[in-house]
Amino acid sequence: MSNTATIHDLETAPTEITVDPVSIHIGAEIGGVDLAKPLSSKAVMEIRAALLKWKVIFFHDQNLSHEQHLDFSRQFGELTIGHAVFGNVEEHPEIYSIAKHRKANRYKTGGKMERPWTGWHADITAAINPPAASILRGVNIPPYGGDTQWTNLVAAYNGLSETLRGFIDGLRGVHRFEPAQGTESSEEYRELLRTKGQASEHPLVRVHPETGERALYVSPSFLKSVVGLAPRESEQLLHLLWEHAVRQDFTVRFRWKAGDIAFWDNRSTCHLAPSDIFQIDADRQLYRTTLVGDVPVGVDGKPSNSLQGEPILAYAAE
Ligand code: SIN
Fold this sequence. Notes:
The chain is an alpha+beta fold. The protein has seven helices and 18 strands. The chain has helices at residues 41-54, 66-74, 103-106, 153-158, 162-168, 187-196, 231-245, and strands at 18-21, 28-31, 56-59, 96-99, 108-110, 133-140, 148-152, 172-176, 184-185, 199-203, 205-207, 214-216, 223-226, 251-254, 261-265, 269-272, 285-291, 305-308. A seven-stranded mixed β-sheet has the order 1-2-3-15-6-17-4, with helices on one face. A four-stranded antiparallel β-sheet has the order 13-8-10-18. Helix 1 (41-54) links the parallel strand 2 and strand 3. It starts with 17 loop residues before the first strand and ends in a 10-residue tail after the last strand. Residues 98, 134, 136, 148, 271, 273-274, 286, 288 line the site of succinic acid.
């Protein structure tokens, strides 16, 4: 993201916006701004500082159009294509439709084993440069159900013992688009992954490029194995880290209303889309933009490396 706010900005009381935390470690509601209008540079700086501190921030009653969503997002960085693998809204290449029955959900044909961390992810960590942040806009919201949850991966890292932190600080993991173990998927999905799939080796502990904080960079839906460990060792370590990362006290749960916006730092959080919406008839429609991200760097200063696919660049009209 551009116009970097430093960790020191986080201590300055905001004057253009209000910031009301909603849990101890993660999530704050932002008030006092109309996102349909261009923001002052001070408001942009304060929103950015709130994002870095609280990891996910929520805005109510904004009711933005696609164009206003794009204009708001662009004040925080360059935008990617809607989704590098699953496409975009026709006429709006930088917007991804989070529809209840979107393609990404239809590809999974069954057999999923539910674990405490199932479905949790940071966006597109299979890419060499996963998006820095995502901005999700609620349009059709079910009368009940359909909440989204986020977890703070910096708090999760800090919550590990010093000994385990020391052990994982130098480790790296392989992230890829691949159906979860034991999950069935369609031939169409497997073909899509052959042509557009991505895979990268990232550090298990990422140093945040703006705050310098260390985040437990374990995105359960994408992270498949730990480099240099035997398969059983890798599986057991990842189960332990994932279970820890989604511990209730690191998380926040957001009850959507139409017109709301959730803006999260994709470098220091994972999130969980709701699965309860498939148990009622009500529709659910949200739209998402993502900001171009950089290549993660580990505690040892070593950047990630790409195993498959291209970096996700700023979208440029052809
Ligand atoms: C997402 O994973 O970006 C969507 C979250 C949601 O549907 O609540």
